[in-house]
Write a structure and sequence with these properties.
Layout: H1 2-14, H2 20-38, H3 50-62, H4 67-86, H5 113-120, H6 128-143, H7 147-151, E1 158-159, E2 164-168, E3 174-178, H8 181-192, H9 194-199, H10 220-233, H11 242-255, H12 260-267, H13 272-293
Helix pairs in contact: 1-2, 2-4, 6-8, 6-11, 11-13, 12-13
């Protein structure tokens, strides 16, 4: 059983170009199920039956796993079995016979325009960190990038003369992100100023665009912590994540009249259905506008 899991992890890395975080989750959580199955006498993946899977789900619930965690584990195991069927390691996918818990649809929580502007004004461009973080935040909001895409960028991905950035998204899918002049100015200032200073702290040369104080590629966790501090300084009381700037990008485009297909392409979504969730957020903005502005709605 372990050999099949090891081969699947190699497949995720080599052929699916999965992120380190994704690979770690799949390896750890499928291994947890494998341990559960072995403790009940199962020695081959082909011997797993739906009854055992239902027992496993009941155990997860009894141990207090939240629905989202259970759903993720079922999805991972279903994908693993689908790969084993394709590679002729098993003849059927038993996970297809069980149903994961249904999650309530949670709408994205974008920032409003005023909050975004307040957030972007916080980093101090007189410091290397502030100049770098301002450029990162401007680029996240201007282009709707995922934070993983942002921090994987190399300097060569920028074409500031054309106002565009080459991004590799999920599954190594390439797209061109268009940015406005404010983001372009922030990136030029960073490249000509603090990136050179940060790079000077390292004995090595790197193509990474955004660097930490040691001259190495900045981590997601470090940037997320900084963003939270900036949000508090901007007077935003709710927790803020980098992905909320991507949500804000999409919602503000739709509020401004952009069509859904264009937003889908800019976000790099494969399915239009994934993008459609933002129409509900945008409609919520319209309902709020009606409620506060229309004389009959006020009554």
């Amino acid at each position: 059983m372990q050999n099949a899991l090891d081969d699947y992890v190699r497949y995720l890395i080599a052929e699916r170009n999965a992120s380190v975080h994704t690979v770690s989750n799949y390896r750890r959580e499928i291994a947890q199920f494998m341990k559960f199955a072995r403790e009940r006498g199962v020695r081959e993946w082909a011997d797993v039956v739906p009854a055992l899977l239902r027992q496993w789900l009941a155990t997860l619930h009894a141990e207090g796993y939240v629905k989202a965690s259970v759903v993720r584990r079922v999805s991972e195991l279903r994908a693993f079995y689908a790969w084993m069927v394709r590679s002729d390691r098993v003849s059927a996918n038993p996970v297809q016979a069980i149903s994961a818990p249904r999650l309530p649809q949670r709408l994205p929580r974008p920032l409003n325009v005023g909050e975004v502007e307040a957030l972007l004004d916080v980093p101090d461009p007189a410091t290397p960190q502030g100049q770098r973080d301002r450029a990162m935040m401007e680029l996240l909001y201007a282009g709707g990038l995922r934070v993983s895409e942002l921090l994987a960028l190399d300097v060569g991905a920028l074409d500031l003369a054309q106002g565009q950035v080459r991004v590799f998204g999920k599954g190594a899918k390439e797209r061109m992100v268009l940015i406005g002049e404010p983001a372009g100015r922030a990136l030029r200032a960073y490249l000509e100023g603090s990136r050179r200073a940060l790079l000077g702290a390292s004995d090595q040369r790197t193509s990474a665009l955004f660097l930490n104080r040691f001259g190495r590629r900045l981590s997601i966790s470090m940037f997320t912590r900084s963003l939270g501090a900036y949000a508090r300084a901007a007077g935003i009381e709710r927790p803020i994540t980098p992905h909320m700037l991507r949500h804000s990008f999409a919602t503000h485009l739709l509020d401004g009249g952009a069509d859904l297909r264009s937003v889908q392409e800019l976000l790099g979504h494969e399915s239009l259905g994934t993008t459609q969730i933002y129409t509900q957020v945008s409609q919520g903005h319209l309902r709020e506008t009606i409620a506060t502005s229309h004389p009959r709605a006020k009554r």
